[in-house]
Write a structure and sequence with these properties.
182 residues, five-stranded mixed sheet, 2 helices
């Protein structure tokens, strides 16, 4: 478990850690992530709370969505969240009328709960999510990529189109008849 930090007996204060894990350990192979994933972690501990700031770096190999050329990308992502220790169960006997304490639940994704006796803070899930969220929705080799011609299939970044006339969408044929020079 490469993405874990020992937090047992950690006094209040600020701590920095550099962590590295393989894409296989984080289950990132299918996303095109290559090499190791690096994470820089800042922990701020105050009592039973840890504020975690996470910054990730990864490399990705993919194909351009416009021209299908291979693309290498550097990905960086940031995430911050709060870790709160669950309350310790009381060791004494409680009065018969007193209800048993129930664990506090939270729907907030930015708050993570830990058992009171936890020794390790495993950040694998948060690192994986941060890397996946840093993958762009559209992968392009460059911002002005011309793509592939729909008619002849040439990569318009490297070759000229050899189509006699640009292909027209047949759905526009009825409107084309309305043009005066058609």
């Amino acid at each position: 478990m490469e993405m874990a930090i020992n937090i047992s007996g950690l006094p209040d204060g600020r701590y920095e850690h550099e962590l590295t894990a393989s894409t296989a350990e984080l289950n990132l192979d299918e996303a095109g992530i290559t090499g190791d994933v690096k994470a820089r972690v800042e922990l701020d501990r105050h009592g039973d709370q840890l504020f975690v700031r996470l910054e990730t770096e990864a490399k990705r190999e993919a194909d351009c969505d416009r021209c299908l050329d291979p693309v290498s990308q550097s990905l960086t992502g940031r995430h911050a969240f709060l870790v709160v220790y669950e309350p310790k169960p009381t060791g004494g006997r409680r009065a018969p009328s007193a209800p048993a304490p129930e664990p506090v639940e939270s729907d907030d994704d930015e708050v993570r709960r830990l058992a009171p006796d936890a020794n390790l803070l495993d950040l694998s899930g948060e690192v994986r999510e941060t890397v996946l969220l840093s993958v762009p929705a559209k992968t392009v080799c460059r911002h002005d990529c011309a793509g592939i011609c729909a008619g002849c299939g040439h990569n318009l970044n490297t070759q000229s189109c050899v189509c006699a006339e640009p292909p027209t969408d047949p759905r526009w044929a009825a409107l084309r008849k309305l043009l005066p020079d058609a």
